[in-house]
Structures are given as C-alpha cells and as structure tokens.
Amino acid sequence: MSLATRYSGNDRINVSLADLYLAKIVKSSQLLSLWRFVLISVLCLLVTGLAACNRKGRHVLEVNYVSAPQASLRDQVATIYNRVGTVKNGERVEVLEHEKRFSRVRTATGIEGWIEQRYLVDQQTYDALQKLTQENLNDPVQAPGVLRNDTNLHVTPGRETDHLYLLTAGVKVSVLKRATAEKQPGAAPPKSVVKSSGGKPSGPALEDWWLVRDAKSRVGWVLARMVDLDVPLEVAQYAEGQRFSAFFALNQVQDPGKEGADKNVSQYLCAITEPHDGLPYDYDQIRVFTWNVRKHRYETAYREHGLSGVLPITVTTENFDKEGTLPVFILRIKDDDGNVSERKYKLNTPIVRRVLAPGEQKTASRPSGKRRRK
C-alpha cells in the first residue's frame, strides 16, 4: 500500500516533510562519517610520517667517508652491542649524531648504526683528494711501481696528514712526482738520511714520498719506501748501488739473434740518484741503455752526472729531417738559484746528443759518451 492510500490531506504533507527531514539527517550523517574517515586517515598518515622521520629522516649533520679498510656498524654505544651492518673503505655515509668517540651514520642503502669516529674523514678531505686527482690526472708516468704493504693515499706528504683511500699490498701504481716531508717522532727511520760533512744529520730527518695514481685513477701521496719501482731486471742489475727515480722505454730495436720468440728489445732512459732520503733533487744522473744487436746485450750509450734533476721527465718523438723521426727526452734541471730550465736530448741509436734551442748554448756537464757494457 502506498503512502497516498494510507494518508490523506495534512497527514500526507506531514509524512512528506518527515521523510525529507530524515533524508537530510541521513545525508548529513554520511558526510560526517566521510569527513571523519578523511580526518582519521590524515592523522594516521601524519603519525606514520612523524615516526618515519624520527626513524629515517633525522637531520643530517654532515657527510663523511670511511677511511678504514672495513668497519662494523653497531646498534648502540655500549660494551655489548649487535652488529647491524658493515661499511668499506671510501664509502659515503651521512652523520646523524655524535656521542663521545662514536658517530651514528646512515649508509646509501639506509642502514643506520654507530661507528668509531677515527674510521671516518670529512668532506673536506674527500674534496682535497678529488682536486689532487684532477690536477694530476694527465701527468706523465715516471715509472710503474708495486706496493710492498697496505698503504694510505695521503692528501699531502707526511705520515700524519689527511688520508682516505687504502691501497692493498701488491697493487700496481704509476709514479708521477716526488716530494719530501719531515719524519714524524716515533716513526721508523728512513733507510738512509743526508748527512753533513761532520757525519751528523743536517737538519730534521726527511722522508721521500711519491705522488702515485692507481688503476682507478685515484691520486695521492704514499711513503716512497712502500713502493718498489718495477724496473726491468736486465737494466736494474746495472744500478751500481744507486736508486732509480724514473725510467722510460725510448724505443725498440729488433734483434733476430735474441733468444725467445719476441725479437723486439726496448732501449731505456733511466734517472738515478744516491740511495738517500731527503735529497734536494729528484735525480743527479741519467743513463741511456741501448741494445747491441751483435753482442745481444745492453750497453751504456750515454751517461751524465752532476744534475739537479726535477721530475717529471718528458719523453716524445720528433722529426729531424735526414735523421728521420727519433725519440726525444726533456729533462728539467734546477740551478743554484732554484730556477728550473729544460734540456732536450735525442737518441739516434747508439748516439745521444743535446738538442739546442735557437740561441741556446750548451752548458758544462759531465757526460760519459763512451759506449760500454752495463
């Protein structure tokens, strides 16, 4: 039965008004429920966000880098703790807080934990090494070398200077430059030091340092005695107690009578110095070893003493008209006033000669042009 049949007149009007009022109440209730749902959802999101910020979005104090070979992250600064992760040398971390000698850090993967501050270096150290790398990225290699022990790459020469990357023993490096630094108290003495005429060390003890570049193109300073220059054995045996500072293959000659399948033989320029740390020059003599194809052995084609040589040495080629294209090397020599000038030489096997620039006069030197075995 419809409302029209059950009610009539004023009753029917009252029923209609009641229905409308009831519909408004229901609609208002639905809107209220919807707003309540939205409000509760927003509050839940805020609470969740605040919790997440407290857990993952802590204010980053600074960026550091791991200088240790490897270090553990702990869940708390206490004697007893759980390991929550591991970081490796060179890894970037965000520092969230400090406590005593520890820092709370977050890794790139989001792992948070405490690490000893002595295992970290700051952004400034990282930037300094990046700058050093860029400045020396294309420097000519003076000699290949092999590390004797695990060694840190330092920003500047010195045992106590900032460092970041750790190179492991046996890693091959390219030697670029040399410098000296004062030996720190308590450090093992250098193999030898420069002494005055009275037999006592003159001034503070100095140690030699090499600027090296590794296979990842990272550049830094390492203690020189930690690097063995990879001088070919057939040349190294003629060192005569001296120390190699640099060596270069100038060119190659063919020797059909040479033993073995490879008939190509390199001819070398070697920069040599006394076996002492702290010298005021990088090398004091050069030797050019050429190959005698009749006697199948190396011989000294050229030797010059009394130099105050400064690295780097440049090796290239140049065309000399009738002589053709020949290997050329350029030395940088320091005079008594500290001024550095260049000297150019050419090798037309087995003869080495100075190449004078227009107007240049040959300076006095002590060459040994006599061709001899060694």
Brief descriptors of the model:
single chain, 374 residues, SH3 type barrels, 4 domains, 5-stranded antiparallel beta sheet, elongated
Structural summary, described in words:
With 374 residues, the protein is of the alpha+beta class. The protein is built from 4 helices and 24 strands. Strands 15, 16, 17, 18, 23 and 24 form a 6-stranded antiparallel beta sheet that branches. Strands 6-5-4-1-7 form a 5-stranded antiparallel beta sheet. Strand 12 (206-213) and strand 13 (219-223) form a beta hairpin.
Q: What's the overall average pLDDT, rounded? A: 85
Tally of separate helices: 4
In total, how many domains does the architecture comprise? 4
**How widely separated are the two ends?**
128 Å
Please provide a brief summary of the model.
This protein is an alpha+beta fold and 374 residues long. 18% of the residues lie in helices and 42% in strands.
Topology, element by element:
Layout lengths: L2 H4 L3 H47 L5 E5 L3 E5 L8 E6 L3 E8 L2 E5 L5 E5 L3 E3 H13 L7 E5 L3 E4 L8 E5 L4 E11 L23 E8 L5 E5 L3 E3 L3 H4 L6 E12 L9 E10 L11 E8 L4 E9 L3 E11 L5 E10 L5 E9 L2 E5 L10 E2 L4 E2 L1
Antiparallel strand pairs: 1-4, 1-7, 2-3, 4-5, 5-6, 8-11, 8-14, 9-10, 11-12, 12-13, 15-16, 16-17, 17-18, 18-23, 18-24, 19-20, 20-21, 21-22
